[in-house]
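Protein modeling request. Please complete all fields; requests missing the sequence field cannot be processed.
Requester role: graduate student
Desired output: 3D structure, C-alpha cell encoding
Chains: 1
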Amino acid sequence: MNDLIAIVLGILRAERVALARGFALAVIVLVMGVALLALSGWFIMATAAAGIAGLGIVFNVFAPSAMVRFLALGRTAARYGERVLTHDATLRSISQLRVAMLRGLLTRPHRALEQLRATSELNRIAADTEALDGALLRLVIPAIAGAITILAVSLLLAWLVHPSVAGILAGGYLLLPTAVFIIGQHVARRPARLAEAGLQAGRSRMVDLVAGRDDLTVYGQLPHVAVQTCGAFDRAAQARHQLDQIERLMGLLLDMVGGLVTAGCLISGIVLVQGGTIDVATAAIGVFAALALGEAVAPVRRALSEIGRMTHAARRVRPAIEAAEPTSETAKPVATGTGLLMQDVTFDVANTSLFAPVSLLVAPGETVVLEGISGSGKSTVLLLAIGALKPAQGRVRFAGRDPALLPPHAMTDAAVLVTQRSALVADTVAANLRLAAPEASDADLWSALEAVCLADTLRPRGGLSLPIGPRAAGLSGGEARRLVLARAILRRPALMLLDEPTEGLDYDTACAVMRGLRQACPQAAILIAAHRQAERDQADRIVPITKE
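Delivered output (548 residues):
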C-alpha cells in the first residue's frame, strides 16, 4: 500500500491544480445530491402537512421547486466538469508514468535487458498503468470527497434536525463502510492478483501466437500454444468470477449499511417527532439525506475489486519510476575531445574469464577492429566499452570517465552502439531515421543514406516515405543493416561501436559503407567487432581477441 500511496502523491503533486478543482467539484456533486433529495423530501412532507392543515393555499411552493431545479441542473453541470478535469489530469499523469517506466528500463543491467520479452514487458506496462489510472478516479477522490461530504452533511443535520440523527448518519456511513472495505480488500487480494497475472499471460501468449503462427504451424505446435493461451484467459476468468462474487457480497453489505443508517435516522426522527422536538418535514430531511449519502459510499464496491490490482501494479511501477529519476551526474556532459581507453580488461562468465586481458586505445578519427573467432567475446568488449557491462578486472575510460558509472543518457548522447540485432519500427524510412535525430531535415536524412550507399536504392521505391513493416519487412537484411547505420550517423557520436556492421553486403559495397561512415563522422573514435575482410581493410589497427 505504501507504493500506491507514493505514486498517488506523485500524481497529486504533478496535477495539483486540475485535481484540486476536480475534487472540489466532486464534493459539490455529492453535496448537491444530498441537498436535492433532502429538500425534495422536506418539500413533499411540508406540502402534505400544509394540505392536511388546510394551509395549502398559502404554502409557498415556488421557492422550493425552483431550488430543486437549480440543484438538479447544477449537479449535472458539476458532474460534467469534475469528470473532464479529473480524467484529463489523470490521463496526462498516466502518460508521463508510462514514459518514466520506459526510461526506468534503461537503468537495468544489460544482461537483464537481453532477457526481456518485448510483448510481456509492454503488456505489463500497459496493464500496470491501466490499473493505476483508477487509483485517483475510483479510490482516492471518491473516498475523500465522500468522507468530507458525510462530515459536512452530519454537521448541517445536527443544526437543522438533531444531533442524534447526525450521529447515526456520521457513525454509520464513516465506520461501517470503512470496515467493509478493509475486510473486502483483504479477501479480494489473492483473486485480484491471479486475475491480473492470468490476463497478462494470456495477452502475451496471444501476441506470440499471432506473431509466430507460421513457425508454430510448421513445427506442429500451434494447437498446443493455442490451448496454453486459452488456459491463461480461463484462469483469469475464474479469478474474475471470484472477484465478482466478492464484489456482490460487499455490495450487499454496503446496501445493508445504507438500509441500517436510513432506518436509524427514520426511527430517531419518529421518536423526536413524537416528543415534539421537531416536526415531520424536518424529520424527513434526515431520512432523505441518509438515502442520498448512499452515493458517497457506493465507490467502495468498485474499489474492492481493483485495490489488489492497484497495489500490485504500484509495487512494480514505483522502483522503475525511482530508477528513472535523474541523478547529479546527469547534468555533466561527456567531453568529446578524447577517445576510448581500455587497460587489461577482462569479463567473467561463470567465474571464468571469457577472453584474455584486452588493452586498446581508440583516438578521435581512428578506426580499430576487434578480430577473433565467433564466441571469443568481441561483442562483450563493445558492451564493456559503452558501460553496459562492468569488467571483472582492468579499467575502461571514455573521455576520462568510467562509462559504467554514468547515467544512460549521458553516455548515449556521446556514443552509439549498433548491435547485430538493432531494431527498426513499423513506420517510414524517415520516421526510423528521426528516432536518432528528431529535428533532422530531409537533406540530413538523405546525406546519411548516401553515406551508407542506400540513397540510390530507396529513391525509386518511395525514398523517405517508403513504409517499413514489422521486423523490417520490405527491406533486405543488408538494407536494414545500412538503415540502422545511417541512423547512427545522425547521432554525430564521438564514439561509434559497431558489431559486424557490413554483414550481408558484398565486398565492394562493404568497403564503400565503411568509407562513408568515416567521411560522415570524421572525428569519431570507431571500434568494430569484425570478421570480414572489408572491415579489416579500413582499420587503422587490429586488436586480436583470444581465449584466456
